[in-house]
Design brief:
The complex is a heterodimer of chains A (242) and B (304). With 242 residues, chain A is mostly helical. Chain A contains 11 helices and no strands. Classes of the chains: A mainly alpha (242), B alpha/beta (304).
Chain lengths: 242, 304
């Protein structure tokens, strides 16, 4: 398992697209927020409002997720590990762990940088207690797990379709459907079940982060289990494209 | 050390309504170079995918290095190196980085193996060039290098000379022979270029419509494809006697269908005809014949 994680990390670190996208995300967010007063807020207020503005970031991250996983299926590079006698479940788990770390990096890079920037400029905004520290920790864990839930949609699509096109396309379509639902009459109700909605609710303090942790975990685990079931007996093509 | 690298018993693979492999029985012996021959859809790649674990059999049993059962097969696959269909490469990485990823994944501690393998396949001068800028031949070489990195006991190469230039073909052919000779690696090589396969393989497996049509050694193939005069007369035994007494040769074979194959006097067919006529034989057929591997294969699948 260690070797599998190591090789996935090796691939991620050498993926220029990832680093370019990370820079693009920071720049796009800076551009979007440059016209407003976001950076004159305290760190706490920044945290409460930032996730509503991260929709484009989440979409870009989903596209990268499709590329990172889908490419391995399309070029058949994931199969090196299977033909080397590795367990399919371990192969998928290693891929998922590194992929979700990468995805969280993309989704959370700007909120984290923004909060640090606002704290340095304007302070935290309210008295910082131990209770507040734990609360923030839970918020962070909830946001990470909810990002994982979003990412797992790409993973499931990759396992089912084994190509790049549909691995990017299907999550984007689902993403837009979720956005539509979150703008409908029952937006609040949907927000409690959909990871993107829950991200906003957790960040702005409407919902306790524990609910975010639970929802994120449930989505992630269920989607990973379905992916595993599909991948365990999947017929895999041979070599990469000519 | 196990004598048999791989065994298949009644191995069957069915895809929606198509029988890709139909109760195949096959044994691969250590130290041989197997040429896997069959037209498109014959089941070659399906068999390779089953051996490498990319696919699962519908029925039958596989044994790798004497071990069977899903868990054991998975374990034994660590001793295999393979390139299935086309090279599976990380296109944004260099040749060296591709091999480094493979080294990490395989858990090979010695980094030296990367340079050695690149040298072995003639890819030492690619520098920082990403694989996406490689020619088809270079990709093919890198695919072979990926398969060789773990110093496998059993090397499976599906169309290894695809896209290679003539000198590249010779190099890869020599490499395969050298690996077999020096490291005693067993090879299973599938190729459509049968003339090339003929220069590499020591054993042949002919697949047709999911069945193993024939397994034969290089010697057996040579025997079957040898240039000869095919003589058909009304009496095969008398023909043999006439050849022995008049032409003083025993370099002939009487086939089960009564045809006598004479391997001498290939340029003197008229002498042969005269001798047979003088012996009072009724000659119904006299022709110079001999197959290439390609002819033989086409003849075999055509004869089914």
């Amino acid at each position: 398992m260690g070797n599998l994680l190591h090789v996935e990390w090796y691939k991620l670190v050498r993926d220029k697209i990832y680093w370019i996208l990370l820079a693009v995300i920071v720049l796009v967010n800076l551009l979007i927020l440059s016209g407003g007063q976001q950076f004159s807020l305290s760190g706490y207020s920044f945290l409460k409002t930032i996730m509503q503005k991260e929709i484009i970031t989440i979409m870009l991250a989903s596209i990268y997720g499709g590329l990172f996983v889908g490419r391995d299926f399309e070029n058949c590079t994931l199969y090196h590990e299977i033909t080397a006698g590795r367990s399919r479940i371990q192969v998928l788990l290693a891929k998922t762990i590194v992929f979700l770390l990468a995805l969280n990096g993309l989704i959370l890079i700007f909120p984290i940088l923004g909060i640090i920037c606002c704290i340095l400029k304007n302070g935290w905004g309210i008295p910082f207690t131990t209770e507040m520290g734990f609360y923030l920790l839970f918020v962070f864990i909830a946001l990470v797990l909810l990002s994982c839930a979003i990412g797992m949609i790409s993973m499931l699509a990759a396992v089912c379709f084994q190509d790049v096109g549909r691995t990017i396309g299907i999550p984007i379509i689902l993403f837009f459907i979720m956005i539509m639902l979150l703008n409908s009459k029952y937006a609040i109700q949907f927000a409690h079940f959909l990871p993107i909605g829950m991200m906003v609710l957790v960040a702005n303090g409407t919902t306790h982060p524990v609910y975010g942790v639970l929802l994120g975990s449930a989505w992630s685990v269920v989607l990973f289990m379905i992916s595993t079931l599909v991948f365990r007996r999947a017929e895999l093509r041979g070599g990469g494209e000519k | 050390m196990e004598e048999f690298i791989f065994e298949a018993k009644n191995l069957t693979k069915k895809y929606k309504g198509t029988m890709a492999l139909d109760h195949v029985n096959l044994t691969l012996r250590r130290g041989e170079i197997y040429g896997f021959i069959g037209e498109n859809g014959a089941g070659k790649t399906t068999m390779i995918r089953l051996i490498t674990g990319l696919s699962f059999p519908t029925d039958g049993k596989m044994t790798l290095f004497g071990k069977s059962g899903e868990k054991e097969l998975q374990k034994q696959r660590a001793r295999i190196g393979c390139m299935v269909e086309t090279p599976a490469l990380y296109k944004n990485m260099t040749a060296q980085q591709n091999l480094e990823a493979q080294r990490i994944q395989r858990g090979i501690p010695d980094r030296e193996c990367i340079q050695e393998t690149l040298k072995l396949v003639g890819l030492t001068d690619t520098g920082k060039k990403a694989v996406c800028h490689f020619s088809l031949g270079m990709r093919q070489r890198l695919g072979i290098a990926m398969a060789l990195l773990n110093d496998p006991e059993f090397l499976i190469l599906d169309e290894p000379i695809n896209g290679l230039d003539p000198s590249g073909i010779v190099e890869i052919r020599e490499l395969m022979k050298r690996l077999n000779r020096e490291r005693r690696i067993t090879l299973l090589v599938s190729s459509h270029i049968l003339s090339e396969l003929y220069q590499t393989a020591t054993q042949y497996i002919l697949l047709h419509q999911g069945h193993v049509l024939e397994e034969l050694t290089q010697q057996e193939l040579d025997e079957k494809c040898k240039r000869h005069i095919a003589i058909k007369t009304n009496d095969a035994a008398k023909t043999a006697t006439a050849l022995e007494s008049a032409l003083h040769t025993t370099n002939f074979q009487v086939m089960p269908d009564g045809v006598v194959r004479l391997y001498d006097y290939l340029d003197h067919m008229e002498d042969v005809a005269r001798v047979l006529s003088q012996a009072g034989l009724l000659v119904t057929g006299l022709s110079l014949t001999g197959d290439s591997l390609e002819d033989y294969f086409l003849h075999r699948i055509g004869g089914e």
